[in-house]
Design brief:
Blueprint lengths: L1 H17 L6 E4 L3 H8 L4 E8 L6 E5 L11 E5 L27 H6 L5 E12 L3 E3 L2 E5 L13 E9 L5 E6 L9 E2 L12 E3 L12 E3 L6 E2 L6 E9 L7 E5 L3 E3 L17 E4 L6 E8 L5 E6 L5 E7 L2 E9 L6 E9 L2 E10 L2
Antiparallel strand pairs: 1-3, 2-5, 3-4, 4-15, 5-14, 6-13, 6-16, 7-12, 7-15, 8-9, 8-10, 8-14, 11-12, 17-18, 18-21, 19-20, 19-22, 22-23
Length: 354
């Protein structure tokens, strides 16, 4: 019966699209079967769905291509009313609903420490049949463009837990990243920072949806172990509970087999190989790492605009410790990358607070 309901909702939305309605078609208040129908792609199984979102904040969508997105259908999860995303034309600041809720999610707070308002979460277990998966997404917000770098840094996280084929585990590793390694939030991708991945929906021609700005479709192939269980958490949150919302569009997830050499990806590694502490810090941190004798490595720090501010050379060997001294940097958010033989092996946020 649940599968029949999912198919009925799908057919209703498809019928609306076929009748020529150019705007985004959204079905709010969906059940777990509908979520499963729109998340589970080829060669994998999704089970144990846990939807901790407000009932008005998550739904299935169709007609995304005609609405200016690079994803045509899937699941939308937002910090407000998902139905407000749909519009025959972009209404400036038209994506606005105040939920008035709060939650301290430790994983999302690693992206933005103050993203604790109007938090909505969808999580599930995923069992791949093949050795790679990808979770394509688009992040958008009504905070654009007026409130970039203004203390309204709404954020998205897509976190994976489970065994790594490289050894060790994926421990809440954030898959919501740009190809540059930057995590996804209003201040890290916009008309100023990482603008090549950004759509300014306030400028002509303007698309029929109520995100004032949003990313292109982003997807990183991730290597997994077939038959193992991976826990996925998709979560969005705001810095302030107010009437400018943010959200993500999630496309169906697929699994496939391919040699490593044919896939361009951000390598995910065991957190025991690279560890940074404390973080947040006063600018003085320690990096614990291991690197084999034939490799060359760098630790590079960038400010929030993407400008490189410092670089360190990594030494070969096991269980090395590097003192990172950035006490002269101003308080704020920075990003780091670890490059091994020119390839990015890790990246995340550094927070300096005194």
């Amino acid at each position: 019966m649940r599968l029949i309901n999912a198919i009925i909702i799908t057919l209703i939305l498809l019928h609306a699209s076929e009748k020529g309605q150019a705007q985004l078609q959204i079905a709010p208040n969906v059940n777990d079967s509908v979520l499963l129908y729109h998340l589970q792609g080829n060669n994998l199984t999704i089970q144990n769905i846990s939807n901790l979102s407000d009932s008005i904040s998550i739904g299935a969508f169709f007609n995304g291509i005609n609405s200016g997105f690079q994803i045509d259908s899937g699941i939308a999860i937002t910090t407000g009313s998902v139905f407000s995303l749909s519009s025959s034309t972009n209404v400036i600041n038209g994506f606005n609903t105040i939920l008035g809720t709060s939650a301290n999610d430790i994983d999302l707070m690693a992206v933005e420490p103050n993203a604790t308002k109007d938090v909505n979460t969808l999580s599930f277990d995923l069992i791949p049949d093949s050795n790679f998966i990808s979770i394509p997404f688009i992040f958008g917000s009504d905070e654009y463009l007026d409130f970039v770098f203004a203390g309204f840094n709404d954020a998205l996280g897509i976190f994976i837990n489970g065994p790594s084929p490289y050894g060790g585990i994926y421990n809440s590793y954030n898959l919501a990243r740009l190809p540059t390694g930057s995590t996804i939030c209003v201040d890290s991708i916009n008309n100023i920072s990482n603008s090549t991945f950004f759509v300014d929906n306030l400028s002509p021609p303007g698309y029929p949806n109520n995100f004032d700005g949003y990313t292109h479709k982003i997807s990183h192939p991730i290597k997994v172990i077939p038959g193992e269980i991976y826990h996925i958490k998709i979560i969005v949150g705001e810095m302030e509970s107010r009437s400018f919302d943010s959200g993500a569009l999630i496309e169906k997830i697929h699994s496939w087999n391919t040699p490593d050499s044919t896939v361009t990806q951000i390598d995910i590694i065991d957190v025991n190989i690279f560890q940074i502490y404390p973080n947040p810090s006063n600018g003085s941190m320690n990096l614990i790492y291991s690197m084999d004798a034939s490799s060359k490595g760098e630790f590079i720090i960038y400010d929030i605009t993407g400008k490189m501010v410092d670089t360190y050379t990594l030494q070969r060997g096991e269980n090395n410790q590097l003192l990172i001294n950035e006490t002269e940097l101003s308080n704020g958010i920075y990003f780091y990358k670890i490059l091994i033989n020119g390839r990015m092996k890790a990246s995340d946020k550094l927070i300096i607070i005194r």
